[in-house]
Amino acid sequence: MPLTVTSTSFAHGDPIPAHHAFGVPGEGDEVATAGGGNRNPHLAWSGAPEGTRSFVVMCVDTDVPTVFDDLNKPGTVLSASMPRQDFHHWVVVDIPHHVNEIPEGAHGGIVAGGSPTGPTSYGGVTGANGYTMFMAGDPEMGGTYGGYDGPFPPWNDELVHNYRFRVYAVDVETLELTDDFDAAAALQAMEGHVLEQAEHVGTYTLNPELR
């Protein structure tokens, strides 16, 4: 039986509910706003291969634009054909091999300035997600964003974004990452140690014409 990831929060391939998002549709002249519940979805996994000693969990948006000149600018669109890049919304390493589930809402709420990195309530250690860099320089929101922070794609993007909740079975108990490590550091530390990986995918858009 291969490694399999499931969720009771939304079906594979379905839209992600707003209570798992950072950004939601606005009201009146405001197309979108930072008003989502920002709660991580439930995740469960099974079928880990022999030799698994820990798990890594990540959530990555693989559809983030590479050019932001027209980001959320009225009268413009971000073309669906433009090059895309990854943006990590969640990274947790060193989840013990006997843990096979993360409850919904283990991380939750929008916190100005971010949330701590470090040990989690369900096991493992969370690093800094992509909002750390995205919010850098913002006097109200800047800081280190540990744990989970949900979708907030550009509202003028022609592309519906895919959010890939990935689970990796690795052959070491710890990746020995410290401080405010990020997804890039975790991926580098995992090289040569991944036994198997699987994902559960949800979609999200704030484009009024696509919702």
Commentary on this structure:
- The mean pLDDT is 97.
- This protein has helices at 131-134, 183-190, and strands at 4-6, 24-25, 32-33, 43-46, 54-65, 84-96, 101-102, 118-119, 125-126, 161-170, 194-204.
- It is globular.
- Helix content is 6%, strand content 30%.
- The protein contains two helices and eleven strands; from the N terminus they run E-E-E-E-E-E-E-E-E-H-E-H-E.
- It is mainly β and 211 residues long.
- The protein has a single domain, classed as Phosphatidylethanolamine-binding Protein (Alpha-Beta Complex), CATH 3.90.280.10.
How are the elements arranged and paired?
Layout: E1 4-6, E2 24-25, E3 32-33, E4 43-46, E5 54-65, E6 84-96, E7 101-102, E8 118-119, E9 125-126, H1 131-134, E10 161-170, H2 183-190, E11 194-204
Antiparallel strand pairs: 1-4, 2-3, 4-7, 5-6, 5-10, 6-9, 8-9, 10-11
Main features:
three-stranded antiparallel beta sheet, Phosphatidylethanolamine-binding Protein, 211 residues, 2 helices, mainly beta, six-stranded antiparallel beta sheet
CATH topology: Phosphatidylethanolamine-binding Protein
H-E string: EEEEEEEEEHEHE
CATH 4th-level superfamily = PEBP-like
The secondary-structure class comes to mainly beta
Put simply, the count of helices is 2
| Biggest sheet character | 6 strands, antiparallel
Question: What fraction strand?
Answer: 25-35%
Shape, please? Answer: globular
Helicity range = under 10%
Strand order of the largest sheet: 8-9-6-5-10-11
Kindly report the average pLDDT value.
Answer: 97
Q: How many structural domains are formed by the residues?
A: 1
